[in-house]
Amino acid sequence: MTMPIPAGHPPIPARRIGVLLINLGTPEGTDYWPMRRYLREFLSDPRVIEVPRAVWWPVLNGIILTVRPGRSGHAYKSIWNEERNESPLKTITRSQAERVAGLLRDRHGDALVVDWAMRYGQPATGPAIERLKAQGCDRILLFPLYPQYSATTTATANDQAFRHLMKMRWQPAVRTVPAYHDEPGYIEALARSVERHMETLDFTPDILLASFHGLPRAYLDRGDPYHCFCVKTARLLAERLGWAEGRVRHSFQSRFGRAEWLKPYTDKTVEELARQGHRRIALIAPGFAADCVETLEEIQFQVKDAFMAAGGEKFTYVPCLNDQPDHIAFLAAVVERELGGWIGGARAGVRDGEGIAA
User: 16-29+80-179+325-338 has which fold?
Assistant: First the structure.
C-alpha cells in the first residue's frame, strides 16, 4: 500500500536501479590546453603513476606536460570524430550505453536507468551518479569497462565513484562489476569478431597477436593481477578459435619511460615476427572495450609501420568489440547477473550474450 506524500513534502521520484558504464577518459579537444588538462588529470592519479609525488610532480609539470600534449594531440587529431567533435572512445561508449539501455528497457521497462561516464575528462563520474540519483536510483551498479582488472583501471574508476559518494548526504547502495577477462560470453564475442574479420580478408594471417595495454613490471611484482588476466584471455581466445598451437600470441603496448614494462613488447614482437618470416599478421586488442587512440592510431599506424619496416607484407587490425550486437548482449547479460537480488534472480555464468528475464 502506497502512503500519500504529506503536504509540502519534496517530490520523490519512482524507485529505480542505476547502471553506470565507466570508461577510461578522453580529452575535449586535440589542441594543447585540452590535451594538457586531460593528461594532467590522468597522470596525476597515484593509481596510474606509483611514484612519490615529490619525485613525480616536477617531472610531470616541468617536462611531460610541456612536451606530451603536442604529441598526444597530433595522435588524437588523426583519429578524431570531426562530425561530433569528440574522440572515438566517447562516441563508442555513448553508443554502448544507449544500446545496453535499449536491451534492458525491452526486458525491464523503466526499472533500470543506464548512464555512462569517464574516469578522466567528460562526462565525469560524479555528475553521472547525481543524474542517476535524481531519477530515483537508490541502487547503482558501477560497471568499469575493463575486461582485465588492474588497479590502474578498474580500481581507479571505482575510487572516483566512491570519492563522490563520500560527499553525498543520501548515498545510493552500490555494487561493482568484477573483471570479465575469462567470461565465456566475452571470449565468444572476441572469437566471433576474429572470424568475421577473417572473412573480409584476401589473405590468411600467419599470426594473430593479442595486444594489451602495457603496465610497469613493478606493478605486477606488487600484486596487480592484470598480467595474469591478459595471458588467460589470450589463451582462452586461442582455445576457442581452435587454431594451431602458437598461432595466437600476446604482447603489451603503450609503454613509456625507462622502467621495464610487461613483456613481450608489441612493437618489438611484430618486428621479430617479420624477421622470422611471419609476414602476414593480424592484431586484436582484447583489453579495450572500445576503439581508442591506442588502437586506431598506435596499432594501425605505429605498430603497423614497425612491422612493415621489418619486412612485413600484410597487416590487419581486428576492431574492438565496440557496439557490436553480441558485445552489447553480453554487457547487458552481465548487468542482469550482477543485479541478482535487485532484479530477477542471479545465475552462475553468462554465456553467448544470453540474458535473464526479470
Answer: Rossmann fold (3.40.50)
> What pLDDT, in 10s, does the model give residues 59-100?
999 999 999 999 999 999 999 999 999 999 999 999 999 999
| Residue 15 pLDDT level (bands cut at 50, 70, 90) | confident
**Segments making up each domain of the chain, as ranges:** 16-29+80-179+325-338, 184-318
User: Looking at 52-56, 157-161, 288-292, 305-309, which range is the least confident one?
Assistant: 52-56
Does the structural domain 184-318 have CATH classification 3.40.309.10? no
Three-state SS annotation for the chain: CCCCCCCCCCCCCCCEEEEEEEEEEECCCCCHHHHHHHHHHHHCCCCCCCCCHHHHHHHHHHHHHHHHHHHHHHHHHCCCECCCCECHHHHHHHHHHHHHHHHHHHHHHHHEEEEEEEEEECCEHHHHHHHHHHCCEEEEEEEECCCCCCHHHHHHHHHHHHHHHCCCCCCCEEEECCCCCCCHHHHHHHHHHHHHHHCCCCCCCCEEEEEEECCEHHHHHCCCCHHHHHHHHHHHHHHHHCCCCCCEEEEEECCCCCCCECCCEHHHHHHHHHHCCCCEEEEECCCCCCCCHHHHHHHHHHHHHHHHHCCCCEEEEECCCCCCHHHHHHHHHHHHHHCECCECCCCCCCCCCCCCCC
- Same CATH topology for 16-29+80-179+325-338 and 184-318: the answer is yes
